Fold each of these.
Amino acid sequence: MKPEESPPPAPFSEQRGELPFPSRRKTEGKVHSDFANKNPIESSLRALGGLSEYARRSRRNWLYQVFISIAVVGVALWTGLDAVRLALVILSIALVLAIEILNTALEVLLNWLQPEYHAIAKTVKDLAAGAVLVTSFGAIGAGFLLFWTPVVGLTYEHIVLKMIGSVLIILLSVLAWASGRAKR
């Protein structure tokens, strides 16, 4: 007598429920991305729609970062930064915003995969938020170097040592604060 065979496991989407947004469709047993076979303009419009949906869902950090980014670019134009420095400012801003988007995407995915509290999910979310923080500090440091000479007139040699000292003081302060919170 043959032991009864158990049915095959349900597809992953049926085990966990659907994502909060429609990203895939099923056709003839195959899964296709909604972005397949679209022209670049349509794909770009979908990406912008995703960003606006993300911003609409009251992600304050994103809105603050966009506001600060616009202000920084305005100050860069007002101070007359040369093209290379302006490009570096814009790249720094884009990097911070991209890491923030990836952080949020990871949070959404983890919330979908693990709706209940789990220590590993918390650690992953904390690390992703830490990546945003590190990138933001890097952008602030780059902005400091890029804006300092045109605005104040000091050379990089004068400010590099002061900046390194300031960053170390800020980093040590944040680490002391974080270790104090961890002990609670």
Amino acid sequence: MAVKKPWGAEIQNREEMFELKRQAVLATAARMIRTRGFEKTTLGGIADVLNVAKPTVYYYFRNKDEIIVHLMDMAITDLMDPESHPEDYPLKQGLNGAQKLERLLRRCVRVVTDDIGASILMIYPHQMSEEMQIRVSKLSLPVDNMIQSILREGAADGSLAKSDEVLNYLLIVGALRYVPVWLVNLKRTPEEVANAFVALVLNGLRTPAQTS
């Protein structure tokens, strides 16, 4: 029987840097939240998967709230970074609102197909403390503003129908929560999900001239 190494396959030796071990905790937490849910994911469970003592995990993160903040920061950084997959960066010059929204939707689907992005969508406000909800809200503000700005821009340039951008933003975020489920349960590829997601949202928001 093979002997399990501390930290599993994530870290191979004790000389690895602190940051690599911290990233191993984050990656394991994201995977567990995605597959088990937020409430069933514990620091002790993360330690068991990594084959380390529970206090070791506390050395990197004091609680699950800290882990969530870091996971959300990683997902939002990826979403907002123009150098990350520039082919779907939505704020490229020369695009109208509908074109920007299509890129943004494809970008969102791409981000939530990995463990980190998917894990964020598995966490609901009622599962967080009031303080945590405030921190998460502040972290997500750049994404909130970008989506609503694109919707307003599309309405202004005529590529999208005039609508309640806040309500449409909430509908988009709500639908995104199911993307990881579609990928697994329906056995769809990320591209297939992105195409369907884009078609559903844009066909509902484009002006008649844009859809004809």
